[in-house]
Write a structure and sequence with these properties.
The protein folds into two domains: about 5-25 and about 175-260, Orthogonal Bundle (Endonuclease Iii, domain 2); about 45-170. Helix content is about 60%, strand content about 0%. By secondary structure, the protein is mainly α. The protein contains 17 helices and no strands.
Length: about 260
């Protein structure tokens, strides 16, 4: 890495400031950092909040996040304010149809909705054993909890892999990284070259954890910053078609250097 962790973050923030992007507002709107601060203060999250976090993680799968945010009020209505008993009784195909109608579905939405009753039962089993979902999600590292929920045997959730499980954990205030396409791409050797090749999900989590530790920032904040930097509905600096001419990191980035050489 030819740039320090603190300088990396500083230059990303400088780039966003240069283009007039309101990073603070975007972080507040995502809400994950504020939820991590809630957990730091010792506040608890209800089972309904956990279910909401799970559903929103599902909805984020392989699709832009912007339309979900724009329709959050409608989504809350569709899921009866995330009241568990009402969701249990709901027609799951109707839930999927309503989400499609507001353009908030994804290619797995029918199966995701079909899985809700099963996943609620898993949540309820966890509460019996641990006393609450809150106690469960902090009884081990985020990595291990996400692996169990996404890939394990005892509490494996349907339609949830390792990455989406990390997103769920962040939605209930656990500091974590979601190693999605944007973040894996920007830290790989085609861009910032923090890893030789295209990093796996687990390798991405490790690299981002090191950056957060070295820079002294909240892990969730780091994830949000880097994701907002890349995502098409947000700052869109380092997406699939990077705007290297706007980026303060171009001298430290293989893509930026190669574009300058042309």
């Amino acid at each position: 890495m030819n740039i320090s962790s603190k300088e990396l973050i500083s230059k990303m923030k400088a780039t966003l400031n240069n283009i007039g992007y309101d990073l603070s507002k975007a972080i507040i709107e995502l809400g994950q950092v504020s939820r991590s601060e809630r957990r730091d203060r010792g506040e608890s999250f209800s089972i309904e909040e956990h279910l909401k976090g799970l559903i929103l993680a599902m909805l984020s799968n392989q699709r832009p996040w912007g339309p979900i945010v724009e329709n959050m009020e409608k989504i809350t209505e569709i899921f009866y304010g995330f009241q568990i008993e009402k969701i249990k009784q709901a027609d799951k195909s109707s839930l999927a149809t309503q989400l499609k109608d507001i353009k908030c579905g994804n290619r797995s939405i029918d199966k995701q909705m079909e899985s809700l009753d099963y996943n609620i039962r898993i949540f309820e089993q966890i509460e019996v054993v641990y006393g609450s979902l809150d106690q469960y999600v902090v009884n081990d590292t985020p990595d291990n909890i996400a692996w169990e929920l996404g890939q394990g045997r005892k509490y494996k959730l349907k339609q949830m892999g390792y990455t989406l499980a990390l997103e769920y954990l962040r939605n209930v205030g656990v500091k974590a990284i979601k190693p999605d396409l944007h973040i894996r791409r920007i830290i790989g050797d085609e861009r910032l070259n923090l890893y030789s090749g295209y990093p796996s999900e687990i390798e991405t989590v490790k690299i981002m954890g090191t950056i957060a530790e070295e820079s002294g920032v909240n892990l969730t904040y780091l994830d949000n910053l880097m994701w907002l930097y890349c995502a098409v509905d947000y700052a869109n600096i380092c997406g699939s078609d990077p705007k290297c001419n706007l980026c303060e990191l171009q001298q430290s980035c293989n893509m930026g250097v190669s574009k300058q050489a042309v």
